[in-house]
Amino acid sequence: SILWQARFFTTVNHLRDLPGLQVPEVAFAGRSNAGKSTAINILCNQKKLCFASKTPGRTQHINYFSIGGAHVAQHRKDATRVDEIRALLVDLPGYGYAEVPGAAKNHWNQLLGNYVQKRDQLSALILIMDSRRPFTDLDRQMLEWYAPTGRPVHCLLTKADKLNRNEATNALRLTNTVLASYTDEHGVPFPFTAQLFSSLKRIGIEEADAKIQQLTGL
Ligand code: GDP
Fold first, then answer.
1. Which residues line ligand 1 (CB under 6 A)?
2. Cα of 80 from ligand 1 centre, angstroms
3. Distance, CA 35 to ligand 1 centroid (Å)?
4. Segment 131-144, tens digit of pLDDT
């Protein structure tokens, strides 16, 4: 997969520092512990591209990974190679840590909210939810921010290895129903898809890979 070319590109802690590249961005969002880091690593076929930040209250960053022409970090200002970058994968800070102090929580709510509402380059959102407890309040908040943009969402229902067949079917059905209830300001639902996913048992990896490539225009 072309996603296997993913390389660390940059870390951003303020909206003003978002990369200036005019290439499609696909952003991964999810509650902390939903399995986002593991999913990105599996999809990119790399063990340690992302590591989960396990420390509550730690400053959260947006991490960028580049696809194509990417074997150079942005700070090296290698313009020709940066020009070869075809897409960016964006690892948004995990949300929902219980013990984060108010100020840090506000900072990252703003960062997340502004990014998903206003980022022109954002071409799709990959929403990572634990298949056993999808649509927490913060997942819904994320969708409320994002839905008015009318851009596509693809949901990965992670840890599907923990569900039996019946539970899996129900989780997928519920997800499609809830996603269909979000509309843009004209009452039009955004384009959405959802699938079961397991990094552990390698369920749904090819499907997710194909979907992400399609949404990124790769
Ligand atoms: P993040 O906070 O969303 O980045 O979550 P992580 O990727 O760090 O995963 C959180 C926990 O869930 C870790 O203990 C993982 O080992 C576990 N996990 C991740 N993916 C799976 C999966 O597909 N199946 C199961 N059973 N556990 C998983």
1. 30, 32-38, 52, 94, 158-159, 161-162, 198-200
2. 37
3. 4
4. 999 999 999 999 99
Query: Tokens at residue 158, please?
Result: 């992670």
How far is residue 215's CA from residue 138's CA, in Å, rounded to a whole number? 24
Give the tokens for residue 210.
Answer: 């194909």
Burial call 105-131: b when 16+ CB within 10 Å, e when fewer: eebbeebbeebbeebebbbbbbbbbbb
ipTM for the complex shown:
0.99
Distance, CA 132 to ligand 1 centroid (Å)? 13
Architecture of domain 2-216: 3-Layer(aba) Sandwich (3.40)
- pLDDT per residue over 161-181, tens digit each? 999 999 999 999 999 999 999
Task: Show the tokens assigned to 6.
Answer: 């993913």
Question: Distance between CA atoms of 26 and 212, rounded to whole angstroms?
Answer: 8
Rounded-to-integer distance, Cα 14 and Cα 174, Å = 35
Instruction: Give the C-alpha separation, 161 to 42, whole Å.
Output: 15
Sequence ranges of the domains in the chain: 2-216
